[in-house]
Amino acid sequence: MKAKPSKNNKVSLSEVARAAGVSKMTASRVVRGEGGYSEDTRDRVMAQVDALGYLPNRLATVFAGDKSSTFVGVSIPDLGNEVFAQVLEGIDRKLGSFGHQSVLGLTQHTLQEEENWIRTVLSWQPAGLILTGRYHSPNATDMLKNAGIPVVEIWDLNSSPLDMSVGINHFDSGFDMGRYLIGCGYTNIGYVGTSHDTANAATMRLEGFCKAVEGGGGQVAKQLCLHDTATYYPGFYGTEQLLAVSAGIECIFYQNDAMAFGGLNFCTSKGLRVPADIGIAGWGNLPIASVLPQRLTSVNVPHLKLGQAAAEMMLARLSDEPEESCRDIGFNLVPGSTVRRAS
Amino acid sequence: MKAKPSKNNKVSLSEVARAAGVSKMTASRVVRGEGGYSEDTRDRVMAQVDALGYLPNRLATVFAGDKSSTFVGVSIPDLGNEVFAQVLEGIDRKLGSFGHQSVLGLTQHTLQEEENWIRTVLSWQPAGLILTGRYHSPNATDMLKNAGIPVVEIWDLNSSPLDMSVGINHFDSGFDMGRYLIGCGYTNIGYVGTSHDTANAATMRLEGFCKAVEGGGGQVAKQLCLHDTATYYPGFYGTEQLLAVSAGIECIFYQNDAMAFGGLNFCTSKGLRVPADIGIAGWGNLPIASVLPQRLTSVNVPHLKLGQAAAEMMLARLSDEPEESCRDIGFNLVPGSTVRRAS
DNA sequence: GATGCTTGAGTTACCCGTAACGTTTCGCTA
DNA sequence: TAGCGAAACGTTACGGGTAACTCAAGCATC
User: Fold this and answer.
1) What is the pLDDT along chain B (343 residues), one digit of tens a residue?
2) Are A139 and A115 in contact (CB under 8 A)?
């Protein structure tokens, strides 16, 4: 039995075993508490574990067993968006309490970055993957199918997922908001967002929104700030542009709450009263929105719960429990006070 | 050469090699693009890589080389706090662009959770660790010292770090705010926070704050909502309690911006005008604070930059470049309009 | 006293890549 | 055409841990 200290001064099981005067295998059994050894042997081994500061090498364990690790890869577009931070929090808390670790990937909303990240993470033999969004590059899809590990697609509910899916129906959430605003008596409605990528949850919301508004006899003027992230300032300037171009806008729906705050701020800075002169509606129901004096009209999604649900589905699959492959986490419209009351 | 498919239907290098009619080693060289093979051989091997969908197993690579992985463990208290989400974003973006992955740990502000997480993550042979905070349990400290890998402690600047440190001096930031408020003419000042743990950045801020206020002839009435997280509602109720107990409070300093918003909301809901009747000051300068109509008086910390700096120090150490062991990222006081102007 | 069962502990093979080294092939020079 | 060196490729030996198997000793049963 070789038991020389390895280059990077890490203590290996062999060294513990030799110090305790037993074989590697016996030491392994003791460390894992697997049974099949005497009390005396266990004490001798554990004494050396403490004395040498032995830490197991999980890479070797995974390697030896030809099984997967306790890693779960989690891809998130970005953390500047509070919404995704909450989702990640829900995921990691739940995974962590069951002995799994999240390997993070910020994919910047691009499929190419996601593909690169998937390739890298798969090479670490993760137990599973949790991905934001239902659209992936062809290469990514191939790799995911071949990987043979559980995959949960979150955010955008997918009735025919790669494997499992949890989220909400974005089209419906946009539709509901459209119907609500029509019900409030608005007909000349604006939309301010950033993306025009078709493979995108925000686009689905916009489509649902337009369908409801147009079906209700209204019309939608769109203002897309391309090449921008969906935060406060694009909301501010997007509103300025929209109002400069389109006359008679009565109400504006934004891609998300952050942009809506930008728009709200622009309107009040121009002396427009909200909702008397113009209505403002956001999406996502940021936590801070609920404590500001004027409640923003928005759509609430249980972000933390969404993350937890994703982790639960992953864990269920990993422990071979039966689980549903598709879970709708639901949303609800928050009336707020930034659009006028339905008559 | 054995080349049977392994149990979990993962394609191994041996299988590629056999399919291409070369040895494992040659296949390895081709896959790594290391040179030492003919064009013809390379084409044959790569054809099989594509055909079989081979993905390298990085566990084996790490294992073979007896070196560390490309993982970097990142411990963060929680992501509900936008501040830490930004820090994490800065870290992961920078690490990711250099081929490293973040393994996340949400340690809930407790040393015990951090210790458990450190033990687990170390067993995966990470390349390094980035930890929030300068205080760790004795066991954790031992493990970190023995691990022989770079460790960056962030958030709370530490002049004698375990290894490297980047952040700000929280005492000073509290002190500056205290001096500023005194300069604005306030003397009867309140503080609302959650923690009374001494091993804590917020406590350091409070200490600095008290020193400045008391040194300037003022006094501080403290209201600590224990067992609560530092978010909106504790700010709201903490303010209610503080004002009920202490008479004549002219201005309140909060543990962070989220709590300050809660307090601001409580005050306005009670008909108190800010800053005419009462001053409000937060800490952290949340992004949303900068777009709301009334700018919150706060302390700005470059969160994203902090995360990037931590990642840079880690990467420098990993590539054996000379790097400083301590970096002060700095902060600046944001006057805002929620405290009355200095006379 | 022979047999079988338990219990404790050692042996061996293997997981998948890579470093180090050994071997073959081939073109070029003398 | 022998001799030589470099390029191309194969072989072997790890690395840390575990599954599966083997083996020996202790004990009870008939």
Assistant:
1) 445 555 556 788 988 998 989 989 999 999 988 878 888 888 999 999 999 999 999 999 888 876 778 999 999 998 988 889 999 999 999 999 999 999 999 987 788 999 999 999 999 999 999 999 999 999 999 999 988 899 999 999 988 899 999 999 999 999 999 999 999 999 999 999 997 676 689 999 999 999 999 999 999 999 888 777 888 889 999 999 999 999 999 999 999 999 999 999 899 989 999 999 999 999 999 877 776 778 899 999 999 999 999 999 999 999 888 778 999 999 999 999 999 986 5
2) yes
Helices and strands (DSSP H and E) totals, chain B? 12, 12
> What tokens were used for A131?
């991905």
Strand partners, B219: B188
Chain A CB contacts of B65 below 8 Å: none
Tokens linked to B319? 């590539």
Query: Is the CB of B67 within 7 Å of strand C?
Result: no
Tokens read off for A94: 């739940």
| Backbone φ and ψ of A130, nearest 5° | -120, 120
Residue A29 C-alpha, separation from nearest chain B C-alpha, in angstroms: 17
Which of A119, A231, A265 is opposite residue B293, by nearest beta carbon? A265
How many Cβ atoms are within 10 Å of A228's Cβ, its own excluded? 16
